[in-house]
Amino acid sequence: MDTKKTVIVTGFEPFGEHKVNASWIAVQELEKLSLGEDIHLLVKEIPVEYKAVSELLPSLWKQYQPELVVHVGVSGMATSVTLEQCGHNHGYNRLDNCDFCPNSQCCIDQGPDCIMSVIDMEAVCKKVNSSSMGVAFSVSKDAGRYLCDYTYYTSLYLGNRRCAFVHVPPLGKRHSAEDLGRALQAVILEMVQRLEDHMDHNQDQDRCQLGH
């Protein structure tokens, strides 16, 4: 019997000014490194399209029953590897790679405004920042109201909050692809370790208080 935990890690295809998307390059570097013998790592490249995300994510959660899903995106403004604490349901008016955005400008009709990951990103950040690996980590509560935030919220909703989102800076801005791969490996292993501790917590933290 296979007792390995399944962890899915996704990156995005190129879009806009990002002719090479650092998120997918970093995920491919992670795949080379692996997450160890006890974890079955699956990686997927996600289109920068609202409709594709809405169709793909339910099938990933249902087919693989993952312990954790970690989505990785690129942020042109990022100077550190940024751990996103929560996803937001409203405000999606920016066109995707197909020149489309949802008429409702939201992820899930009648879903909560904001869903917080079950994982304490501040605690993860503190732990990996103390590891002296040469990569800086930070925490954010605003994933940007584009495909990153849309994907994160949808996955948090589908996966009962067993999800994380990591923003990486563009390649060459401060870190190499190898640096970003090692950074992903460190944060994801820490997330998996903390996940079991948090699964017993009650559900009263589903909504984050914006601005806090």
From TrEMBL:
Protein name: Pyroglutamyl-peptidase I
GO terms for biological process, alphabetical: proteolysis
Family per similarity comment: Belongs to the peptidase C15 family.
Any one GO molecular function term: pyroglutamyl-peptidase activity
Gene3D superfamilies associated with the record: Peptidase C15, pyroglutamyl peptidase I-like
PANTHER family referenced in this protein's UniProt entry, alphabetically: PROTEASE FAMILY C15 PYROGLUTAMYL-PEPTIDASE I-RELATED, PYROGLUTAMYL-PEPTIDASE I
Keyword terms, alphabetized: Cytoplasm, Hydrolase, Protease, Thiol protease
A single GO cellular-component term on record: cytosol
Coiled-coil annotated spans: none
Pfam families: Peptidase_C15
Origin species: Alosa alosa
